[in-house]
Amino acid sequence: MFELAEKIMLTGMGALCMTQKKAEELAKEMKERFNMTEEEGKAFIEKMQQNFEQSQQKLEEMAQQEVRRAAERLGMVTREEFEQLQQRIEQLEQTLASSKK
């Protein structure tokens, strides 16, 4: 399950590198074909990077949701549920200890 999340994150990072390179190549091609200025090319690359970052955030959110669903299917508790159970156990132990005195 955590391996899946790790693979998704690594895939996203690889896509970032590849996307940046492709964006630069596309900007260069557009500059040559459409006589874009350097500023226009840079603006285009920045827009592409922003779009990618938004897509990457969505991918990360989807991966986190899938990990949560997988954990639920496996019957795993969340950290919050675990901490609540720990607190409940401590309360019960204190109650038991005070009733023995």
Structure explained in plain terms:
This protein has 101 residues and is mostly helical. It has one domain. It has three helices and no strands. The chain has helices spanning 2-34, 38-73, 79-100. Helix 1 runs antiparallel to helix 2 (38-73). The longest helix is centred in the middle third of the chain and has 36 residues, at 38-73. The chain is rod-shaped, with a radius of gyration of 25 Å. It starts with a helix and ends with a helix. The mean pLDDT is 78.
Can you give keywords for this protein?
3 helices; single chain; mainly alpha; PhaF_PhaI; 101 residues
Write the layout of secondary structure elements.
Elements: H1 2-34, H2 38-73, H3 79-100
Helix pairs in contact: 1-2
Question: What is shown here, in short?
Answer:
This protein is mainly α. It has helices spanning 2-34, 38-73, 79-100. It has one domain (2-76).
**Content-based structural category:** mainly alpha
Kindly report how far apart the N and C termini lie: 46 Å
Specify the overall morphology: rod-shaped
Rounded to an integer in angstroms, the radius of gyration calculated over CA atoms is: 25 Å
What is the residue-averaged pLDDT? 78
Oligomeric category:
single chain
Q: How many structural units, i.e. domains? A: 1
What are the low-pLDDT stretches, counting only 5+ consecutive residues below 50? none
